[in-house]
Amino acid sequence: MKILIIEDDEKVGSFLSRGLKAEGYLTLLLQDGLHALEMVRQFEPDVIVLDRMLPQLDGLTLCQQIRSQQIPARILILSALSEVDERVRGLRAGADDYLGKPFHFEELLARIEALAKRDVSSLHQRQLQVADLVLDLDSMQAQRAGKALQLTAKELGILELLMSNSGKVYSRERILTNVWGLNEDPLTNIVDVYMARLRKKIDESHAVKLLHTRRGLGYCLQPE
Q1: Model-level pTM?
Q2: Which residues carry this modification: 4-aspartylphosphate (predicted)?
Q3: Relative to the CA of 217, which of 12, 78, 145, 176 has its CA 20 to 30 Å away?
Q4: The pLDDT of residue 200
Q5: Is the pLDDT higher at 120 or at 94?
Q6: Are residues 58 and 156 in the same domain?
Q7: Among residues 7, 35, 181, which one has the least CA distance to residue 108?
């Protein structure tokens, strides 16, 4: 599951990012709300942990913008403003939950898990399938023609992204954003390296190829 953290306090943001990564989540940390809406579109998070008071663009305004774009991510507002009227304002702005600061990390985890379960069928299919390639989203196990594929976590992340939009072409930069969380230098060839590995595991022993390179554009997954 992908979590976008928008928090201007460097210590709090780092704590959240490290803690959620340790729980197995893919996280991306932003420290202001100015370009956050564009990053929401690129990163496509399942849950957004949103600070109420941000520099340049207020958290409530950003929440309203996200909702106006019909983006299905769940939003959890974090704020030192924890009075009842402030919580009501946050929820009316479109937040799914509101947690006051200071907070216990275990409670934050529990709230994130609860948000992820809400209407989960509308956010993700529990199983993705393209031709005879199947990815189970609960177990994160992939198989082709009934044979299990031994894939790494990053390979599974790439596969989920491409299978969720079969035929859509993803640039190297978009794949970096979604799978690595912008932690890698976009000038490296890390995406190409992983794509070569993935192609070998998925297509090498099959007549019908699924993973394709679109020269100058990126990669897509669909039957030939």
Answers
A1: 0.57
A2: 51
A3: 145
A4: 95
A5: 94
A6: no
A7: 7
Q: Based on the structure, what is the number of domains in the chain?
A: 2
Tokens of 208: 């019908």
- Considering the domain architecture, whether residues 82 and 115 belong to the same structural domain is answered as yes
Q: Look up the CATH number of the domain holding residue 216.
A: 1.10.10.10
Asked whether residue 206 falls in the same domain as residue 96, the answer is no
Q: Which residues pair with 141 in a beta bridge?
A: 136
> Minimal CA–CA distance to 109: which of 67, 54, 49, 62?
49
At which of 79, 96, 122 does a domain end? 122
Say whether the peptide bond before residue 55 is cis (omega within 30 degrees of 0). Answer: no
Find the farthest-apart pair of alpha carbons in the chain and give their distance in angstroms, rounded. 62
* Residue keyed to tokens 């190829």: 209
Q: Which of 68, 92, 122 is the last residue of a domain?
A: 122
Give the strands of the sheet with 127-130, arranged side by side.
127-130, 133-136, 141-144, 147-149
Q: Rounded to whole angstroms, how far apart are CA atoms 130 and 108?
A: 36
Summarised one tens digit per residue, pLDDT across range 34-85 is 888 888 988 999 999 999 888 888 899 999 999 888 888 999 999 888 777 7
Amino acid at 145: A
User: Do 7 and 82 lie in a common domain?
Assistant: yes
Domain containing residue 147: 127-221
